[in-house]
Amino acid sequence: MTTLNSKDAHDAASEDGGAVAMKAAHTDGETLYERKAALINVELDAMGLGRYQNLTVYQEMNVKGGAQADIFTAFSAGLTVGAFTWGLLVDIIGRRYAFNLTCLLTSLFGILVAAPPNYTGICVLTALCGFGLGGNIPIDATIVLEFLPQNRRWLLPLLSIWQPIGVVVNCVIAYGLVPRYRCAETLPSCRAVANGAACCTRTSNLGWRYLMIVCGCITLGVFLLRFAVFTFFESPKFLIARGRDAEAVAVVHSIAAFNRQAVPNLRVEDFQAIDHEFKDRLDDSLNTGTSSSALGVLKQAFSRFKHLKGLFRTRIYIYLPGIIGTAMAAAAVELPGIGRKWSLVFGAIVQGVSMAMYTQVTTLKASVGLNALEYIMQSFFNAVLYGFTPEVFPAPIRGSAAGLCSTFGRLSGIVAPIAARPYIDGNSNGVLWLACGGIFVSALFLVALPIETRHRTSY
């Protein structure tokens, strides 16, 4: 596909009208949808980036051995169903409603995870929380891609920077709550002793529950801010895919006003002119090629749990460098000869190597260092992946396609704890070698991937 430089296209549109200007920016093989999407791209490219585009149980519950993996399986199951369900809904009800609903579900069920008195209830609510989160992840990238100027698509991998930041924030909150409000680690579960014996009770082990409530409230706060502070517009590309041209034009004009940019040249007449060109193919008009002294108290409390202080501090050492990985991804995807594909290959191989090396760890420093390296590359890989996937598909099916891809990934998340269960019970390095094998196999498939979107127009 050939495209105009954003400034040149916008200037041409100012002089001759949008429809006339775009005659020099398309090829004969383009569909009606692609022609209209190109007009959206011109306006977004011209206005550039602006203000609009600028998240102890086992001891209490007496959960042991392989059963500890059940909560991860439940969460992955929720993520899988969520990715599939919301991936379809986002192309039906729109990006705006789908995003807001997934935020609401994630926050509500996240808070409710703190309520159940038994491990089964916790796993069920964790799965429901995953249902919301699993849908939100592919929607995020879809929304951001459809509002970014073409020359700023390298920013898409930076969306994943919030993952390591969120983990660090979570660790800080946990550091302040879990050690202070938890039962002594030597106490057995009340489910494993006779009545009246000293044990880890619910009331003495509220720290992890407070953590879930606080994190859920943060997500709920973000959901509410969407209505009180920031107006979230529907994607104009979703709107034109649904034949709502006038609304798409209104959104582009609203974004320009929000960004304090000049009034766009795009108007409904431009779309109508394209409709006229395609009048003999209206039945297939949107075909895209596929089917549609408090401080003193805290210090005293933390002094009783020095090992936990070290644990949370170590977590921050491991996860904070993940920000480096997302920044590396944003740079790597635009490197000549590297792009999206080879960035994914590189990220997968280094992840696998770091896991293999971890099997030989004998010191705490080596453990923290290799964990940090693995998480840097995990953040790098995810940042590229979540940016690359929606770029491959056009807007009319982008949500469904990205959701389906995410579903396949989540299915492996369900299988992984089950496959690793014998190694968990045996306390061996088998879990790490199993993960290494999976990563290296995925790297081989990525080498054979025949797609690169670095210089390809996003419709």
Give a structural overview.
The chain is an all-alpha fold and 459 residues long. 66% of the residues lie in helices and 0% in strands. The protein has 19 helices and no strands. Helix 18 (395-426) packs antiparallel against helix 19. The longest helix has 32 residues, at 395-426. The radius of gyration is 25 Å and the shape is globular.
SSE order and pairing:
Blueprint: H1 6-16, H2 18-21, H3 32-47, H4 57-61, H5 70-89, H6 95-112, H7 119-147, H8 162-177, H9 207-228, H10 236-241, H11 245-258, H12 268-277, H13 294-303, H14 306-319, H15 322-332, H16 339-358, H17 364-392, H18 395-426, H19 430-447
Helix pairs in contact: 1-3, 3-11, 3-12, 5-7, 5-18, 6-7, 6-9, 7-17, 7-18, 8-9, 8-14, 14-17, 15-17, 16-17, 16-19, 17-18, 18-19
Key descriptive features of the protein:
459 residues, 19 helices, disordered N terminus
Largest sheet: none
Number of DSSP strand runs = 0
Structural class: mainly alpha
Q: N-to-C terminal Cα separation, in Å?
A: 11 Å
Total helix count?
19
| Beta-strand fraction estimate | under 5%
Low-confidence stretches: 1-10, 12-24, 51-55, 288-294
**Helix share, percent:** 55-70%
